[in-house]
Specification:
The protein is α+β, with helices and mostly antiparallel strands. The protein is 33% helix and 35% strand. Strands 2-3-1-4 form a four-stranded antiparallel beta sheet, covered by helices on one side. The longest helix has 16 residues.
């Protein structure tokens, strides 16, 4: 099954939390994790079937854009069919903690 990786970068922790929540509810995706990537910016990543990741990403982006205040999507990207060696470099591989939620 073709898989994809999706990442959304937001301003503010509430925004990344809202994006993660919307994404896992909108599609059959696994939340791979989040991390602080700059001053006040966070990135959240998901994996799953390509169509499900596209749907989940759209939901996450729409949720953050609809939030009041200074929350906003700084950037987002979807990688369909990532090469296997990408997991060795980026923190998007399934871990013991994420394995039970693998789609």
């Amino acid at each position: 099954m073709p898989v994809a990786v999706g990442m959304i970068e937001t301003t503010g922790y509430p925004a990344v939390l809202a994006a993660a929540d919307a994404m896992v509810k909108a599609g059959r995706v696994a939340l791979m994790g989040y991390e602080s990537c700059a001053s006040g910016r966070y990135v959240v990543s998901i994996r799953g079937p390509i169509g499900e990741v596209k749907q989940a990403m759209a939901a996450g982006i729409a949720t953050v854009e609809g939030m009041p205040g200074s929350a906003k999507v700084e950037s987002h990207y979807l990688v369909p069919n990532p090469p296997e060696n990408i997991e060795a470099v980026l923190p998007i591989g399934y871990t013991e903690r994420s394995e039970p939620f693998r789609t």
